[in-house]
Design goal:
Helix content is 9%, strand content 32%. By secondary structure, the protein is mainly β. Strand 2 and strand 3 form a beta hairpin.
């Protein structure tokens, strides 16, 4: 892989690599269960694997007057980014 906006490059970490945003779309397709942790070796940066997805809880979110049922997950990627270990990011799917 190679970034066009800087000099960062590296070896792909998987034959079917996913970046941070692609992982969000991917985990939306899974039958997630509260309390479980799912582990994947699909991160595009070799040193970012394995990626762990912790399923924290069910929740509800309101937007434009409509309430949606969500499932809250915490991605853990071995990076310094938003979803990196030590981060506190949660996603409502």
């Amino acid at each position: 892989w190679e970034r066009q906006d800087n000099d960062e490059f590296g070896t792909l970490g998987s034959l079917l690599p996913l970046d941070d945003v692609s992982f969000i779309y991917f985990i939306r397709t899974l039958p997630l269960e509260v309390g479980k942790t799912y582990t994947f070796n699909r991160y595009f940066k070799e040193d970012g694997n394995p990626v762990k997805i912790r399923v924290l809880r069910k929740d509800q979110r309101e937007t434009e007057g409509v309430e949606y049922n969500t499932i809250v997950v915490k991605p853990l990627i071995k990076t310094d980014g938003l979803f990196g270990e030590g981060g506190d990011a949660e996603l409502h799917l």
